[in-house]
Design goal:
Elements lengths: L2 H11 L16 E5 L2 E5 L5 E6 L2 H4 L8 H11 L13 H13 L4 E7 L2 H18 L7 E5 L8 H5 L19 E3 L13 H17 L3 E6 L3 E2 L5 E2 L2 H14 L2 E5 L23 E4 L11 E6 H8 L16 H15 L3 H16 L8 E7 L2 E6 L5 H9 L3 E2 L6 E4 L7 H17 L2
Parallel strand pairs: 3-15, 5-6, 5-7, 7-10, 10-11
Antiparallel strand pairs: 1-2, 2-3, 4-12, 8-9, 11-12, 13-14, 14-16
Protein name: Adenosylmethionine-8-amino-7-oxononanoate aminotransferase
Enzyme class: transferase
Keywords: Aminotransferase, Biotin biosynthesis, Cytoplasm, Pyridoxal phosphate, S-adenosyl-L-methionine, Transferase
């Protein structure tokens, strides 16, 4: 089918994410992808190439059609593509588990593979609840978190997403009622003696004190809230939450699905604060974007308490858990990342984004410009006209997916300096054209 026919069939058949079925937003047809480029159908029988400044929703860190990752999949599919993980195991799963334990914080010693990031959060919450039951604390059935968070689209993760300004307000009343404190005050550089941060700590302490008998765990995105607004906060706030959990016997769950594997400049964002979680969720970049896969890691203490408690097991088991193809490509992706000076690469991208986006700060309608690691954000003082902004940036050779009041980029780590400069110029130029 030609491009126009495919797009017409798409609009009749397929329901895209966060989109109306009857009045869908326009979709663009991808004909190919290689390196940092998407090849898009131009509607006239040709193609137009664009830098994917989104890493396909933050997961395609090595770009498209990377020969190392392609080879890993070819090798594994020649052996077998899938086996159940109940009662069976295989080398790619064992080796990937070893690698994840090596690269994550030292206290995390055990790995549970999941289908997606949202499912890993489901499993983490279930684990925290089982932990408290196993400790005899049967009343501890709620999570403590902060406003502005996003943890996924299945039911338990939805319950810990922002209930007012998040994407799941339609489900209020159907979701478990969790405890929400205010967002930490914005700003990576704030320290514990900052008055606003100190005030936030006081509020969180009061919540924890009042509801300690109900709280099983604290769950947050460390240092950078993603879909909640690309919102950075202080490492001292994260240190405080670690201490709060220790003080009251809560577990600390860190959702590093978006921030893990180098995105913020450290391998995991918790390293900015020098703390370690009891439970860690990873996904997105885990497989380099090739397959859907995530993982939940926990400490030996957590695993042993649950394993020796009622039921004697973590009560979860996905059909496609530890899929061999996904494990093989995830292992190859991690080895590829670790084989290079990834930290220098992130610093290079960060500097390029800071330079490229800086002119946007002086444009009308721009509220803020911020960069953290390989994340660049231009925040407007009004909602983005998404179709117009997408077209304007794409006309400059770059693909972005704005949302709310944000035009942002999380580029692949393989972007050249020229790619990063092009991304900055395209975003700045499109905003200058009119936002």
């Amino acid at each position: 089918m030609d491009g126009s026919e495919l797009l017409a069939r798409d609009s009749e058949l397929l329901w895209h994410p966060y989109s109306s079925l009857t009045s869908p937003a326009p979709a663009r047809l991808v004909r190919g992808a290689s390196g940092t480029r998407l090849s898009l159908d131009d509607g006239a029988g040709g193609q137009v190439d664009a830098i994917d400044a989104m890493s396909s929703w933050w997961c395609m860190i090595h770009g498209y059609r990377h020969p190392v990752l392609d080879e890993a999949l070819h090798r594994q599919i020649d052996d077998f593509s899938h086996v159940m993980f109940g009662g069976l195991t295989h080398e790619p799963a064992v080796r990937l588990g070893e690698r994840l334990v090596e690269v994550t914080p030292d206290s995390l010693r055990h790995v549970f593979f999941c289908d997606s990031g949202s499912v890993s959060v489901e499993v983490a919450i279930k684990l925290a609840l089982q932990y408290q039951v196993s400790r005899g604390r049967t009343g501890r059935t709620r999570m403590l978190t902060v406003r502005g968070g996003y943890h996924g689209d299945t039911f338990a993760p939805m319950s810990v997403c922002d209930p007012v300004n998040g994407m799941h307000t339609l489900f209020t009343g159907a979701l478990k009622e969790q405890l929400f404190g205010p967002r930490p005050p914005a700003g990576y550089e704030r320290t514990a003696d900052d008055p606003e941060l100190a005030s936030w700590m006081t509020v969180m302490s009061a919540l924890a004190d009042e509801f300690a008998h109900e709280i099983a765990a604290i769950i947050v995105e460390p240092i950078l809230q993603g879909t909640g607004g690309m919102y950075p906060y202080s490492p001292d706030a994260l240190k405080f939450l670690r201490g709060l959990a220790d003080q009251h016997g809560f577990l600390l769950i860190l959702d590093e699905i978006a921030t893990g594997f180098g995105r913020t400049g450290t391998m995991f964002a918790s390293e900015h604060a020098g703390i370690e979680p009891d439970i860690l969720c990873v996904g997105k970049a885990l497989t380099g974007g090739y397959m859907s896969m995530a993982a939940m890691l926990c400490t030996s203490e957590v695993g042993e308490v649950v394993s020796n408690g009622p039921g004697g097991a973590l009560m979860h088991g996905p059909t496609f858990m530890a899929n061999p193809l996904a494990c093989a490509v995830a292992l190859a992706s991690l080895d590829l990342l670790l084989s290079q000076d990834w930290a220098e690469g992130i610093a290079r991208i960060s500097a390029g984004l800071a330079t490229g986006l800086k002119p946007a700060a002086d444009l009308p309608g721009v509220k803020d410009v911020r960069v953290l690691g390989a994340v660049g954000v231009v925040q407007l003082d009004h909602p983005v006209d998404v179709p117009r902004m997408t077209d304007a940036v794409l006309s400059r050779g770059v693909w972005v997916r704005p949302f709310r009041d944000l035009v942002y980029t999380m580029p692949p780590y393989v972007c050249t300096d020229e790619d990063i400069a092009a991304i900055g110029a395209a975003i700045t130029g499109a905003i200058a054209e009119g936002n």
